[in-house]
Design goal:
alpha/beta, 2 domains, 9 helices, 10 strands
């Protein structure tokens, strides 16, 4: 059975990741492991201050708080917990604790929430950013504006260069809840005949009842990322899949505002990010 490690710090902003994981598991029967890493009792080992009689952190209390937090969200979503595990740990390095736990339980995916607008550290949170960089396990990133709904469509923006290895990974994920996949490819079509032959060949090879291709002509005055942002808002997919390189500039730019006068691009769409 597939496993998802769902991280939470018991805050309001982390609720979206829990809600998304609950919805996903309700459709495909994945096992959910909820992880809370508590740092409130961690003392700086280099501090000159001496603490006498400080109580040891109570993992049982932390675990009970985690269970109460998650079960409240289950009730709010009108769903019942099934195949769930709860882990509370006291660690200084949250990112390391998450990665170690994912390895220990053999998680297939890690699910985390974002934090809001701005640069990527502020957007994703420093822990999500580091895990995106370091984890070999695919990461489900849930934005703060996510609203729970049935998952049915996946948007896969692709340069088509590695579609033979990337598409099977997405199809494997999509097949578990019978989702359709829309492959979006953007090009300037400067050599239109040659490009069309290439695209038609790829479409003929990979097209199916559940996989559709959409070839979009780029406007030279509008960036690729802006084209993608507009299409995301138009088609409203359930999930966006991406294959990210180690640098995070692309993800950072994706969430920048469409126009400088706007406050930001507030997507409600979760992302499944594979490491390229």
């Amino acid at each position: 059975m597939k496993k998802i490690l769902v991280t939470t710090d018991l805050s309001h902003s982390s609720k979206v990741a829990v809600r998304f994981a609950i919805q996903l598991a309700s459709q495909i029967g994945y096992e959910l492991t909820f992880l809370y890493v508590n740092t409130s009792f961690i003392i700086d080992p280099f501090s000159a201050v001496t603490f006498v009689g400080l109580p040891e952190p109570d993992n049982k209390k932390q675990e009970q708080a985690l269970i109460k937090f998650v079960h409240t969200l289950y009730r709010q979503t009108n769903k019942q917990p099934d195949k769930t595990t709860y882990i509370a740990e006291n660690k200084l390095d949250v990112s390391e604790a998450i990665l170690n736990c994912a390895k220990r339980i053999k998680a297939d995916y890690i699910c985390m929430s974002t934090r809001g607008g701005g640069l990527v550290n502020k957007l994703l949170g420093s822990h999500t950013t580091r895990i995106l960089h370091d984890s070999p396990i695919p990461l489900l990133v849930v934005p703060r504006h996510y609203r729970i709904k049935k998952l049915s469509t996946i948007l896969y923006p692709s340069d088509l260069e590695k579609i033979e290895t990337e598409l099977p990974l997405i199809k494997k994920f999509a097949s578990s809840f019978d989702a359709s996949i829309a492959v979006y490819h953007y090009d300037y079509f400067t050599e239109e005949e040659e490009v069309n032959k290439k695209l038609n060949k790829i479409e003929h090879k990979f097209n199916s009842d559940k996989v559709s291709f959409h070839f979009k002509k780029l406007n030279p005055e509008v960036s690729l990322l802006r084209h993608l942002q507009i299409d995301i808002m138009t088609i409203k997919p359930s999930i966006i899949t991406m294959f990210a390189k180690e640098n995070r500039n692309w993800l950072e730019q994706l969430f920048q505002p469409l126009k400088t006068s706007e406050k930001g691009f507030n997507t409600r769409t979760p992302m499944l990010v594979f490491k390229k």
